[in-house]
Amino acid sequence: MHLVAENTPEQIRERELLDRLRWALRELAANLMRITRGAGKPYDVVDQIASLITIVADYQKLTGRAVPMEAFSDALVIQRDWDGLAEISDGARERLRATEQVVEGALQVAASRLLGQTTHASRGTNEMFDGMHRIRDLNEKERIAREAAMRARQKPKVSTKRTRPVKPPSE
Question: Which of 75, 76, 84, 92 would be 25's cystine partner, CB 3.0–4.6 Å?
Answer without folding.
Answer: 75
